[in-house]
Amino acid sequence: MIMDDHEFLSCGWLSGPGPNHEIVLSTRVRLARNVKGFPFSHWASTGELARLVSSCSAAIRKTSYFENAEEIHLEEVNVLDLAFLRERHQISAEMVHSQNQRSVFISADQKTAAMVAEEDHIRLQVLYPGLDLKNA
Hints:
The protein contains four helices and five strands; from the N terminus they run H-E-H-E-H-H-E-E-E. The chain has helices at 6-9, 46-61, 79-87, 93-97; strands at residues 26-33, 70-73, 103-106, 112-116, 122-129.
């Protein structure tokens, strides 16, 4: 259970005040991309989704942003942990309600996440406390 992991309970973008924190709670930057040769996630077969997740996971693991990231296969996660991840904006509502194979990578500081097999094939996001577009 994710909520039993005490290191995972601390969250980088919620850990303290950022610039202009009295006005802006957080800054989020998102980038969504689709992978050539794969149908959109909601049209893909179970096999196509498995290949997409495998292919994207291998590529994500090679980046420095996610070298110490936690990979979570969401079809193996209970409802309470899904709600916990959604509440922290680490996964989307689409990912909570989907029954398809999907995964999320969450960086060690929990400011960066990569959702795989969401509405788009890959959705990257960075969250920082306060108004901090430069760092995000």
